[in-house]
Amino acid sequence: MACATIAAAGAIARKVLASLYANVSVRGALVQIGSKTIDRAHWDWAEVAKNAFFCPDATAVGPWTEYLEAVRKKGSSVGAVIEVVAEGIPAGLGAPIYGKLDGDIAAAMMSINAVKGVEIGDGFGAASLSGEENADEMRAGNDGKPRFLANHAGGILGGISSGQPIVARFAVKPTSSILSPRKTVDVKNAETDIQTKGRHDPCVGIRAVPVGEAMMACVLADHALRHRGQVG
């Protein structure tokens, strides 16, 4: 039920954004399932709606299907990574200390059930880069505005949108309710085993893609309205 209400709120948020900015889009895709990742050279947004995984890489769908079916037959589960990209968002949304745009996006994604990690832009990958590699350098654009040569920061600098695509990824843990017995304790602190029976979902992360999109839209609409309230 919570996911359904988030999706409904996201639909309203998209309309708010569309009324304020032209050509806004908020799109999500599954980029990793268990240990299997996509080939980003094959990224095609049109493929996301063509398969059950919301996968942007058509070459990954077949192997992923076989992989997840094997996981399901074992009664086990795997996690997933979802990437959400918002384009058409202008520079200036957010704040440098309280109300940071990336902080609010991270909080929103972490509020989704089973999410255990969030990153903006290169995220944890930035830790392995040098200052030269990580810098989003700028040059003068033909439209009189600066243009960035990279987007390692994921469209947010100092808590404020830069005008580039806003990129967030979040990790969803494997489904806790698996069929193999797990060690636990009962209400009297006695050691025992527990085994889940009945409905089994080998990867809840697949269903999190539209929820992540909705959360991103809600946060951006909130910041867009705050910005309009502040500057008119």
Largest sheet properties: 5 strands, antiparallel
Mean of pLDDT: 94
Distance between the termini: 36 Å
Q: Give the low-pLDDT segments.
A: none
Secondary structure category? alpha+beta
Please give the share of residues in helix: 25-40%
Shape: globular
Round the Cα radius of gyration to an integer and report it. Answer: 20 Å
What order do the helices and strands follow? Answer: HEEHEHEHEEEEEEEH
Residue fraction in strands: 15-25%
Q: Largest sheet, order of strands side by side? A: 2-1-3-9-4
- Beta-strand segment tally: 11
- How many helical stretches? 5
Tell me about this structure.
The protein is α+β, with helices and mostly antiparallel strands. It is about 30% helix and about 20% strand. It has a five-stranded antiparallel β-sheet with strand order 2-1-3-9-4. The protein has a two-stranded antiparallel sheet with strand order 5-6. Strands 7-8 form a two-stranded antiparallel ribbon. A hairpin with a 2-residue loop joins strand 1 and strand 2. Helix 1 packs across helix 5 (about 210-230) and helix 3 (about 100-110) packs antiparallel against helix 5 (about 210-230). The protein is globular.
